[in-house]
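FIELD: query
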Amino acid sequence: MNKLYSFLDKYGIPLLQHSIIFSLTFESKDDDTSNELDLLIDEALGNIYRTGDIIIRLNREPCFEWHTNFPKEFSEGQTKDDQAALDYLTETTGFNFEDVSCIPERPLLNGHPFLIMLELEGEYHAKFAEGILTGNLVIREKFHEDGRLQLNFINSFGMINKVVGNVGIDGIIKDFGELEEVEGDLWLSTHLIHDQLKSISPLKKVTGNFNLKHTMTSLKTLEFVGGNLNLRKTKITDISSLRFVGGNVLVSKSQLPNIDFSKVNIGGKLKSFNDDFII
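FIELD: result
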């Protein structure tokens, strides 16, 4: 058990989704009644019903549940593996989960980042949101437009210091918490206006590409970008610490007078674009 817990401490809990197919059957001696029920069920499937904070979604697609996916050297069968993961979480945090499928539903605890789902080598790992995380991380809004609960619906990086992997922000982010470095790409979704993000502090380094489209934030702490820096359709307020961009810098022409690149070593080119935008 000590070796298993050491593995979980380092890599997180490896999880896989399994499909569950629900079926609905009915019988009626009356053909007209059967046809009417067919039409009602067909009409209901795929619809979304909202009542306050409650979302009910009926869908033709199969549902999914999560189970552990331990390496062979730690696996003792699905049931025992799932229980071992739950025991680990209880002993580590004091928080009780009813089953493994509840783990991805708990990115937050008391309003703070808690368990993050990271994509690593084709599978998900649930890891505590602190320190250095290895794997690709995408922050999303709580609900998809079709009503599905999504992963990683956090609005801050909390106690995460570094991510070794790509980071995407496809939801509302308010601050960068304690995040100082991304060893990979960092992007903010272009279909959202990130007007609640006022600063990326304390972020200093992004080794890959950094896409900040549709933001109006301070980059005061940013020192290094290894790839391209995309500032198109942004209203950034401060790049005073930025010293190196390994690729190109992309910027809207209307914002060029507001940004001083004189102290930045740009490995590629400074490219400006005639962008029409409102933030």
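FIELD: remark
The chain is about 15% helix and 30% strand.
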